[in-house]
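User: Just a sanity check before I run the rest of the batch. Below are the structure tokens for the first item. I only need the designed sequence back.
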């Protein structure tokens, strides 16, 4: 006997199961079934498709008027961090830029101080709360970066917290070592600090899946980033890069040359680098919530990247400085409005392609997949990025078990 059947689904969203990320025009293709049915047994999908009465199950959920989709994937977050930076809003109002705040020892470096000061337990509690908020918003696969320790003890502390969260909640997670995220005050030189981080890589191997670097003016150069990525690959890591977020240094081209699993941000990526996407499976992870939060007018050229047959994904970049939201639905709205993505493109970008950007088996609910499912309080898939800034989740099922149920009843 099956465990669960979800019946009368107004729109059942079924992203394609593929080995490679969806590219270019493929992102606008999404299988949407009217009056769908989903059947679950032993935590896995037995059937997802058109209405049928062929199956029986112990439990039944009536999804009349609702959308059902795979749980979302947040492919770029700085989930584990100490403190907060609300005081920077005043500095920004006074006209200081993100990089100017960092140059003055604020920004990332103030989060480094708070993260170093926090006990592992305190960091765990804070990140746990933020992870639960993500799960309440329909996310069941998360990438989580270090990068606020900038020394062995504290980078490892962040990565341990990240792994403990995965153990506790059993969700799909990938852990990323971002030792070269900034140059700490005590460093003698960029060069020596980068070498220190490279020397940590063999030991990081047991804790992290990916190695990442912040390639930006005043942080790490293209040459330094190449050196780090090649050293990480030699240690068996897949690599990622924070590339062309503010200045066009050429990080996208480097990522493609080094066969990075993803290149993230890309607001200032050059046209020449964008054309290279055509022959690459490196996923361009776009973070439009960050552009919005930094108050910029120019967003990443998502349409251009798709025209060049690129693979794109969308993520929150949740962090305490440049994008302080862990609501991926909000970022879906910004992607629709500012990156000019169609609803189909937005959904593929936060499910199947986001999963490819972090190499997790997630983002689809086709036969045999884990039953990580969201039932949405929305009449169609376009509605979710349209009615922005709120949580549309009705129910979240993790491996077929209800873990979140929202209603608007007052106490
Ligand atoms: O804490 O500001 N861009 N790293 C690179 C960040 C944003 C996170 C932060
Ligand atoms: Zn980031």
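Assistant: Here's the designed sequence for the first item:
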């Amino acid at each position: 006997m099956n465990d669960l059947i979800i019946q009368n689904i107004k729109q059942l969203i079924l992203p394609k199961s593929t080995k490679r990320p969806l590219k270019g025009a493929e992102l606008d293709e999404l299988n949407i079934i009217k009056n769908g049915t989903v059947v679950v047994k032993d935590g896995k999908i037995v059937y997802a498709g058109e209405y049928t009465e062929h199956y029986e199950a112990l439990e039944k959920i009536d999804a009349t008027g609702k959308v059902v989709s795979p749980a979302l994937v947040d492919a770029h977050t700085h989930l584990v961090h100490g403190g907060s930076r609300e005081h920077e809003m005043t500095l920004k109002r006074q006209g200081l830029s993100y990089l100017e705040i960092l140059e003055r020892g604020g920004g990332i470096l103030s989060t480094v101080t708070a993260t170093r000061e926090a006990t592992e337990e305190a960091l765990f509690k804070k990140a746990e709360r933020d992870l639960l908020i993500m799960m309440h918003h329909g996310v069941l696969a998360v990438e989580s970066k270090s990068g606020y320790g900038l020394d062995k003890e504290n980078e490892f502390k962040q990565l341990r917290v990240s792994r403990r969260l995965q153990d506790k909640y059993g969700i799909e997670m990938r852990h990323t070592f971002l030792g070269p995220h900034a140059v700490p005050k005590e460093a003698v030189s960029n060069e020596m600090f980068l070498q220190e981080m490279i020397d940590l890589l063999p030991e990081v191997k047991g804790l992290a899946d990916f190695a990442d670097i912040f390639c930006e003016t005043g942080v790490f150069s293209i040459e330094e980033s190449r050196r780090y990525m090649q050293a990480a690959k030699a240690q068996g890591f897949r690599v990622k890069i924070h590339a062309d977020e503010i200045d066009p240094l050429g990080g996208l081209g480097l990522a493609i040359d080094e066969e990075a699993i993803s290149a993230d941000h890309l607001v200032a990526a050059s046209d020449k680098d964008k054309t290279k996407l055509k022959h690459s499976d490196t996923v361009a992870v776009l973070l439009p919530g960050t552009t919005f939060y930094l108050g910029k007018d120019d967003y990443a050229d998502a349409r251009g990247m798709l025209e060049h047959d690129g693979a794109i994904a969308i993520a929150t970049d949740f962090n305490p400085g440049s994008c302080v939201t862990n609501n991926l639905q909000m970022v879906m709205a910004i992607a629709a409005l500012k990156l000019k993505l169609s609803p189909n493109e937005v959904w593929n970008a936060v499910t199947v392609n986001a999963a490819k950007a972090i190499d997790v088996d997630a983002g689809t609910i086709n036969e045999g997949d884990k039953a990580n499912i969201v039932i949405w309080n929305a009449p169609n898939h376009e509605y979710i990025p349209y009615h922005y800034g709120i949580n549309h989740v009705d129910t979240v099922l993790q491996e077929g078990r209800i873990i979140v149920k929202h209603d608007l009843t007052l106490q």
